[in-house]
Amino acid sequence: MATLREIKRRIGSIKSTQQITRAMKMVAAAKLRRAQENIFAARPYAYKIDELIQHLVAKIENPTDPLLESREPERVMLVVVTADRGLCGSFNSNIIRKATQEAERYRDREVSIVSVGRKGYDFFRKRNYQLGREFINLFNNVQYQHAQAIAEYLIEEFLACRADRIILVYNEFKSVIQQNLKVEQFLPLRKREFEGEGSGNLVDYIYEPSQEALLKALLPKHLNMQVWRVLLESYAAEQGARMAAMENATENAGELIHDLTLLFNKARQAAITKEISEIVGGAEALKSAS
Fold this sequence. Notes:
290 residues, 14% strand
């Protein structure tokens, strides 16, 4: 059995860790609140511009924009969005596992990895994966300019035919305790099928300038906005995962402290009983000697 001093030292160490995890939970909760505000503000615009782009694509008979060109996916680029830091449960490992599964799907093609976030970059650079550009340390102060830089790089790779298909792998924020793993095709832009008859679901707007000119002007804005939304989704999901992980760690530390306190009391009681027995035995020996 461990000595009283060892048990007391372990209890003190766990209490210190518990204070850290409790503080990290509070910090994550504050960051999550701001992240939720940002994502809830960005989603309506992102969804609406996506709807508008899909409307334009569906109305144009033969769109000629190169960002809509569908090619045989000989070169596939996976954009893996992870966190820059750990201590957020299975947040990073789930994304990395999903990304490796997607890479396995295209194992007979040329697959490259673009890492957004340090954890994904650290994982893939140590393994036999072809790496593209990495974007790390963004989430300390994520800005719209970061999304623009990522989108510009992906558009450039697609237009230069260094990537025939670009796929985003990220966590979509749903709630504090739940995130949705998402795998979305970023480029080429996919033409969705609208349900029912075209005239019933696609309003016949009057466009000024032409539909093609609007599509050309709005496509880069749309792609920038979708990357920005993905960054915000991932950041909010990361903070929710970290908050839940730190809460669990704090509760587990409390249980350990409780168990060790019981062990400490039992050990102290055993030590006291032993001392009393020794005193009684010594007293009896003195009586016998006299």
